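1st attempt posting a full record on here, be nice pls
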Amino acid sequence: MFGSNGKSNNVGIIGLGIIGSRVAERLRKAKHQVFVWNRTVKPEPNFLASPREIAEVANFIQIFVRDDDALKSIMAELAPVLDVQHTVLVHSTVSPDAMKAAAAIAIKEGAGFLDAPFTGSKMAAENGELVYYIGGEDIVLEKCRKILEVSSKKILHFGTNPGDATVLKIATNLISASVVEALAEALAITKAHGVSPEQLLEALIPNANCSPVITMKLPAMISGNFDPHFSLANMLKDARYAQDLARDKSLRTPVLDATALAMSQASKNGHDQLDFSVVAKNFDSP
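the predicted structure (as tokens):
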């Protein structure tokens, strides 16, 4: 357990979306002293006025913001007050270049830094079952391990280079997005031929291609419950990061491109804040 004497073991959470808010609550329940900030004010305990204030009261700073621009803005606000006592953990899915730039700012000021994206959505965060992908020095990871363990079931260390864990996170997300688009197409074909959607689920469960993504998303797609566990807006953002990485190395990605196009159509239909499985609605009759 971390004490509240001074700021040495306090934790700051920046970004109170689906995951950040639940990680903060996990830390509170584990008796950690937690301070939070979000661009939109939320009725959370110890809500402070700025990222700078977070750094003034907490040495461990966990960042859960949405994209490159948001991370760049946060790091610019933190930089003047970071020092050797701080450790910055960036859990956002951003571009590897943005992650490397954030690391450079923290390290320049003497702070520790971890590239620390995660896999797992709303319920995983709520139940402390995220899996963190880590890029950073061993000594920094060990310093933060007890904090990460509060919200995770596994911590995977992928070397010391900031950006590498982020590449892996983007790569795994493109697989999830593509599987869900394939699932939406399979569901549409099944329904169009008069076969019960529930029978599709029954057929998939013992099939070699079944996965937690399928067993989680297909029932929701069948029922039309698109309560966000991972928003369409965020998955489309991540798909575009993946496309950027592919273009950078002149790689063709037809499956990724088709999936991004399907998500873009769902976004144009106004579904950004719903779960990314809402791509199933692309097949609804006009």
